[in-house]
Amino acid sequence: MIRIAAVGDIHMGPDSQGVLRPAFETLPDCADVLLLAGDLTRHGTPEEARVVAREVKDLGVPVVAVLGNHDHHDEQPDEVTAILQDGGVQVLEGQETVLDCGRGRVGVAGTKGFCGGFAGRNAGEFGEPLMKEFVRYTRRCADGLRTALERLDEQGCDARIALTHFSPVPDTLAGEPLEIYPFLGSYLLAEAIDTAGADLAVHGHAHAGTEHGMTSGGVRVRNVAQPVIGRAFHVYHLQVPERVPTGTPAESAG
Amino acid sequence: MNNLDYRVAHLRERLAGGPLAELGVQVAVHGDSVLVTGTVPSSHCRDEIGRIVGETLTGLTVRCDLVVAEASSPDQAEELA
């Protein structure tokens, strides 16, 4: 079993330093990894990123993140990423990482993702250049997620997780106004997840949504936006095949 | 400009574009009253939003039912078999 802790939309600023740290310090007792599903800051300023970095530094478990739209607002995503990395956070955008948790090898593929809506009620790559670029940007994010998940498959992970900020499915948006669903996620992310395969998809962004959902391909989706889960983080126990101890006949036969 | 719909739209823009960068708050009009709901990261944010809403929607009855995000550890994990 691999224990996945996750939270998104913590929206930290200078006045929130230390608010989440006491809960985060309990992570080594209950989780093998902490996933941060974007919108870690309010405006994406370096000052706010430093608050986040200090909040998660030296927690005793690996921390893997994607950025959210708020983390882009100040138009310094590379600086925000660098500050988080200095704090020990792995920040993914069309990338993947493999963590050996002792209980199993867990692969995390991440992208911020973007919007566009869900199958049958989605924006199309048509018309004005801005509209086409809007959809193409989402498609690039989804392609990055798919290829990262495929690379994880080649690396023999016990479990693969898709980490995004925007939602891949409408299920976890229930509670949000229907009219804004197209701004909350895209089916292209779910298609990428179902094409490459994953054991769990985790996202944030939809503060008024619900926690539980599933892709058309049967991958479980969890909206971990802090207002949704109502905690500093939630923990998911993923069942994986038991590891065979070194030196046993099963291993030597392989 | 007295149309309430536009005033609420401008309020939402002010909340998003201001120092709080708050996009997660719902503002619903009920007759002559306005209900503000949602979860915000700190009591400072909650108080500031209440102040801005009152300032922007003068003359209306405003009820701010905002809550501050819970920062405690979870009681249990979800088993994904």
UniProtKB/TrEMBL annotation, chain A:
Record bears the keyword Metal-binding: yes
SUPFAM superfamilies per record: Metallo-dependent phosphatases (SSF56300)
Keywords: Hydrolase, Metal-binding
Keyword Hydrolase: yes
Residue span, Calcineurin-like phosphoesterase domain: 2-208
This protein's name: Metallophosphoesterase
Annotated source species: Streptomyces pharetrae CZA14
UniProtKB/TrEMBL annotation, chain B:
Protein name, as recorded: BON domain-containing protein
Organism: Streptomyces pharetrae CZA14
Species lineage: Bacteria, Bacillati, Actinomycetota, Actinomycetes, Kitasatosporales
Domain of life: Bacteria
